[in-house]
Write a structure and sequence with these properties.
The structure is a homotrimer of 358-residue chains.
Chain A: H1 12-27, E1 40-45, H2 50-62, E2 66-70, H3 84-94, E3 97-102, H4 107-114, E4 119-124, H5 130-144, E5 150-155, H6 162-171, E6 177-182, H7 191-199, E7 204-208, H8 211-214, E8 220-223, H9 234-240, E9 259-261, H10 282-300, E10 316-317, E11 339-342, E12 348-350, E13 356-357
Parallel strand pairs in A: 1-2, 1-3, 3-4, 5-6, 5-8, 6-7, 8-9
Antiparallel strand pairs in A: 10-11, 11-12, 12-13
Helix pairs in contact in A: 1-5, 1-10, 2-10, 3-4, 5-6, 5-10
Chain lengths: 358, 358, 358
């Protein structure tokens, strides 16, 4: 059985197949409108995320399937102190596939190890959000015709921007990608992303604080929201939230076929006036997210042929060693096995949240 | 494409057709039980309203369609600062038709201008609630056999009672309607309703503070709830909430074929003992609401033939002029175009909440 | 029309038929996957209970039916002061069957008297939770092959444990049942359960404070959660919550074919290490809950043949007499008829919450 916790769980070949299927779905939706008849998707959202939840629900419904679940922890058994593993085991009795959103890093991975049905990570804190990356890849592919030889600008909050980190990881496996990191110093890309992805994969990248300077060279511009909830200091948020707003006049210097993306929801980082510009692709991106989730569900439920099993990384358990990440699911999950993995760079990481352990 | 924001968006002919269809649905439900197969309704409820939401969901399900959405703002992206327009654009990627409830006046209209699918106003603050009026019209038609030559009593909170205002507007287009306005002075019908509807359409109406005095003359009695949430002063609420309670003994003086209506939920304005009286029609009214929503969905999705496009009122934009209504969506919506319309009476109104602008 | 408010509403013969059907469903699910096409289940949850709600929704979806409803009172009309009876009458316009969870005792019974469709009690405060008992009976039947001649240990919170009381009542109708009550004195079985069930039905039972002492004799061990929400004094909760934890070593003394059950969610009363023991049946129990709810829906909707009508107990109304139970629905429901019944033991009880009235 396969789950999707991290975008790298799929090989490039698997991703290409999923993208291909998503494109076919977008062209002939009726062909797929009853494929999942009698299948149930459980959307387990321990924190609210309307867009992601509705996208998953629409995906399953458009496949002829059914949906149940909850939209925030308040109406879940977690309030009664149930573990994520038990919730996953129980929901496995009711549904055929799970999409889980959780504020704690590693929770969907815990669920995938306990569940007897496939689990899709719909976002776990600041850790992973692979289905957003699937939407991003399909959008780049459809709009530019390729996933290689591209200059991709990533703008805004690159420090806390989970979607940006996942996209860089995904692009690291394609040829000829140039990354331009556009952000204020306070919100620059974290060193571990440089070390573990950009440098490790010998990606071509540069950093700049000026959006206008970077724009002319870009094939893709990926704007991100500066998220209030990521800031400990509200004043710092107020000072930075208006940085890097994309307006029509700034676009004068950009390529005619630039692809402007945004994970949404947008606050004000892209002027509404840009929406009518043919280069604005962020609402197409939302639709692509639904198509990719449809393809992903088909993949994990075996409609694309043998899915095999989740890779089992080489790990070791420990009774002394503990993950120090306060947002890691190991902090709250009952009787969890504290397991770790040795990485190529010699570091030891928690297998759930992937934080380095000293 | 057509949306339903205000009951007057439909012509009398269109309303008659919708009522006719709803009656056919109520007689042969199985005939319609798969018409909307593969269609998705999005119920976007930015404030809770169980009855209205469940009625819409039941309507779509009984048409063979599917439903997704949220039941309060807490689990929506609005919490992350997303605009109503962006939510409408995004949900247009997932669904085929939207039913929106919002505490701010004009929000569904903003959505209808941004969405690429039909939008139904499921209630916007104290402004409009057209599908309630659809339920009311079908009930009057079924119970009295006509929508003309009727004496209609409206009782209770006529000041804040949105459903009453919409019903008066709807009835203003039929012949021989006598309106009897029954309320305490503090909750009397607002002057603008008199000026813009009752007087303007030369409707025959009178005001009284005494329910029993009015009862004998009525073909229809429309009771309304005195809503706590509409009062700034809780004491005034306590003093008035028990006014105008309908009891069995009060009904002695009423016609045998009186049609007693109530938008529900009821608190105590109609004694439970009245429920068994054949003249009590308020639960039939709830069922009629579902049938009319079914007919409305069929209408807007084009199953009743060409729907044409929303009427585009003559409007003008302004950078200085601002709507003064604190509950208007223009107060919070980002980068919204502040647009206004000149009305026959020479007044200038906000196109979103329809408040007069000085 | 029939509703299920109390497990004793069904005769032993009816229960056997429902169990038989549930077993058939579990063996040939596809045979039932479209039986309820065009039927709608309304899940009215006035307090959150994910597991129970998802189990009901999965049950209806697996029968080919549809679902609507709400998952907590906040998004219900109750917030606007609507009575349970009115909610039931209105939802009867939209759905074909209701599953209701409510914090007040007797609320589902009030609903069943007002509704025009069957009502299933999905838990009413500390009073009844019959569908949990249905899951329990199916599990015992499948795992031990019988519902008679069993030694059943009930462990943990027997004072507040509603599911335990219902199970004892259900088992009281079978032959050769030995009950072993395992709990700290503070959480012992209430006297009224002894008087009204154990003694009245001349059941064979004994009480003990020691789980290990009791284990060797048991065919079934029913563990229960010590629920925080049942304690007025948090310190007492802290002191007792870890009592009676089932661990692998404790199981050494148990029978090889012991059936370990738990209504779930579990906090820590059963060690996770026990999950892999073949005697652990609590997740099977969750799945059985879904199958029994499927069978129950078929029963109440008439797919198993004539259902007849709810039994009408001999009751008398009273204007002076009032139920003293502060958690009784009669405390808050508007204009409710205060009715009571004389019991065999000569006591007078509220017909809603079944509390004794002095």
């Amino acid at each position: 059985m396969r789950s999707l916790i991290d975008i790298l769980d799929f090989s490039v070949e698997e991703l290409d197949k999923i993208i291909e299927t998503a494109i076919d779905i977008s062209k002939k939706p009726e062909k797929y409108s009853a494929v999942c008849r009698d299948k149930i998707l459980a959307t387990l959202f321990f924190e609210p995320s309307t867009r992601t939840r509705l996208s998953f629900e629409a995906a399953m419904l458009r496949l002829g399937g059914k949906v149940l679940g909850f939209s925030d922890a308040g109406s879940s058994s977690a309030a009664k102190g149930e573990s994520v593993a038990d919730t996953a085991k129980t929901v496995s009795c009711y549904a055929d596939i799970i999409a889980m959103r959780h504020p704690q890093e590693g929770a969907p991975y815990v669920a995938s190890r306990a569940a007897t049905i496939p689990v899709i990570n719909a976002g776990d804190g600041g850790h992973n959000h692979p289905t957003q990356t699937l939407a991003d890849l399909l959008t780049i592919k459809k709009e530019t015709g390729r996933l290689h030889d591209l200059t991709v600008g990533l703008c805004g909050d690159l420090k806390y921007g989970r979607t940006v980190h996942s996209l860089i990881s995904a692009l690291s496996r394609y040829e000829g990608i140039n990354i331009v990191l556009i952000s204020p110093k306070e919100l620059g890309i974290p060193d571990y992303v440089k070390a573990d992805v950009l440098d490790k994969c010998e990606m071509n990248y540069r950093e700049t604080e000026c959006l206008e300077e970077a724009l002319p060279s870009l094939d893709v511009l990926y704007m991100t929201r500066i998220q209030r909830e990521r800031f400990s200091d509200p004043e710092e948020y107020e000072r930075l939230k208006d940085s890097y707003i994309l307006t029509l006049d700034k676009l004068d210097g950009a390529k005619k076929e630039l692809c402007i993306m945004h994970p949404l929801p947008r606050v004000n980082e892209i002027s509404v006036k840009v929406d009518d510009d043919p280069r604005a692709c962020y609402f197409k991106q939302a639709k692509n997210g639904m198509y990719m989730r449809m393809a992903l569900i088909l993949k994990l439920l075996g409609y694309m042929g043998e899915v095999g099993d989740d890779a089992t990384p080489e790990t070791f358990e420990s009774d002394e060693l503990r993950c120090q990440n306060p947002k890691c699911i190991t902090v709250t999950e009952q009787e969890i096995v504290h397991a770790f993995k040795k990485c190529d760079d010699g570091s030891v990481r928690c297998i759930y949240c992937e934080n380095k352990v000293e």
